[in-house]
Amino acid sequence: MGGRAVSALMLLAIVAVWEGWVMLSGVSAILLPAPSQILSVLWQGLTDGFLWPHIRITAAETLLGFFLGSSIGFAFGVLLAEVEPLRRLLWPYILASQVVPKLALGPIFIVWFGFGLTSIVVITALICFFPLLENTVTGLRAARPEQRDLFRMLGATRMQTLLRLKIPAGLPLVLAGVRVSMVLALVGAVVGEFIAGSQGLGASIIAAQGMMDTPLMFALFTLITVMGMLFYQLTVLAERWLLRSRQKGHER
Amino acid sequence: MTDSPSFLSIESVGFAYPGDCPSLDGVSLSLKRGAFHCLVGRSGCGKTTLLKLAAGLLRPGSGRVCIDGQPLTGPSRQAGFVFQTPSLLEWRTVLDNVLLPVSLHRRVTSRDRVRATDLLAGMGIEDHARRYPWQLSGGQQSRVALARALVTDPPALLLDEPFAALDAITREDLQNDLLRLTRTQGTTVLFVTHDIAEAVYLAGHVSVMENGRITHDLAIDLPGTQTDDKRYHPEFTATCSRIKAALARSDRVGSS
């Protein structure tokens, strides 16, 4: 808890120095707005309702893309971990699909899925897919050889070994992938809006840039940061709950 | 002595890991029903491999393994296996771990739960039934692993240095637990260890293994009942020295 207090103090200190410097140097608000100005823009946007639809859109894109990408990533991870020939066959293609900058695929997604929500969700899902796939494939190998021998000895079926040994043993790694995925999902949604969105926090940043409204841009950055930390905390809470019976320190 | 048929028989079994020289070479071993047999040898002499062959976890390259007259074709449900580490499922409670051999095949009944709790109570850890493995000491985890291997009352029990990582006092307690539980059930036991005193204390027969072969076979016939006092009997020490000498001899044979 001491660490958190120090972190909060540090934030206050940075904001104070920032505020003071902007005031004393008289730098233009177009270059660097003061924290007080950013907060008042943010407050106004929240109270007059201007920001809420954008928050809802970005949150929806993030969560849809996250759930879609992670569940497909997990399913593929299980499949590739269980069927070794399939893994050898498909791995180069999966790797290639990840090495391609996914935002470069944005324009083609606009052609395929249209401008807006669907394209952005697809980009986000594509970004979330890989961490889950990678961690699931690795996680399903986490069961110790003796535990595998035990299941063989007990005459467990392949499905039982998967559901009752491999997935539970790999769960900490899978959940670490979920955490990474969640953070990437918000990045995917915001940057996806840069290319394919007319609504949402990312699209609003582009709009604010067009109007040279730097205080609004900073207010949107703040919102996105808070939203990302909130989503991240939710995954941490879910992880803690799922691993509640395990030894502390086992989670990575 | 040779009139009763053997329950677990290993018949001139050979085995080699792929791309390696043979780790077992024509090994034969025969255990009567209810026998307690120890395999002693240095690390890497092939004793764990032999145990896995007896369990059906490995398939012999030549020869065969029979349990109750039936040749093995895969892991045998007739045998319980205790590994070098307790290898419990860390996300399940102690009771769930003990009941795993049951729950993999059918719904757990209240009778199964009573049997599992009795086994835990017999080793003095019934209070831990609802806890998780990481909350237990090493000795307690080993007891849970033993209870798990015995919960279905298998006619044979195979153990791979199960107590090697424990301190001396805990190890003696567990040896006594094992003797008591297997004797009341009449379980046939094949126990692998590198500890000569452990083998002499537990077994009716001790086989010495060296370089993939059984080089010596000794019947242990010590006076008195199986109690802790036995360990301090001169006859006990003499038997240990005999096995140690046998190990040293086979070492010379192996290196010549």
What does this structure look like?
- The complex is a heterodimer of chains A (252) and B (256).
- By secondary structure, chain A is mostly helical.
- Chain A has a domain at 53-203: Orthogonal Bundle (MetI-like fold).
- Chain A has helices at 2-25, 35-47, 52-82, 84-99, 106-113, 117-139, 145-153, 158-196, 201-210, 214-242.
- In chain A, helix 3 runs antiparallel to helix 4 and helix 8 (158-196) packs parallel to helix 9 (201-210).
- The relative contact order of chain A is 0.13.
- Chain B has 256 residues and is an alpha/beta fold.
- Chain B has two domains: 6-78 and 155-255, 3-Layer(aba) Sandwich (Rossmann fold); 87-153, no CATH class.
- The longest helix of chain B is centred in the last third of the chain and has 22 residues, at 234-255.
- The model of chain B has no long low-confidence stretch (mean pLDDT 86).
- Classes of the chains: A mainly alpha (252), B alpha/beta (256).
- At the A-B interface, helix 7 and helix 8 of A face loops of B.
List the helices and strands and how they pair.
The complex is a heterodimer of chains A (252) and B (256).
Chain A: H1 2-25, H2 35-47, H3 52-82, H4 84-99, H5 106-113, H6 117-139, H7 145-153, H8 158-196, H9 201-210, H10 214-242
Helix pairs in contact in A: 2-10, 3-4, 3-6, 3-8, 5-6, 6-8, 8-9, 8-10, 9-10
Chain B: E1 6-15, E2 24-32, E3 36-41, H1 47-55, E4 62-67, E5 70-71, E6 79-82, H2 94-103, H3 110-122, H4 138-150, E7 156-160, H5 168-185, E8 188-193, H6 196-202, E9 205-210, E10 213-219, H7 234-255
Helix pairs in contact in B: 2-3, 2-4, 4-5, 6-7
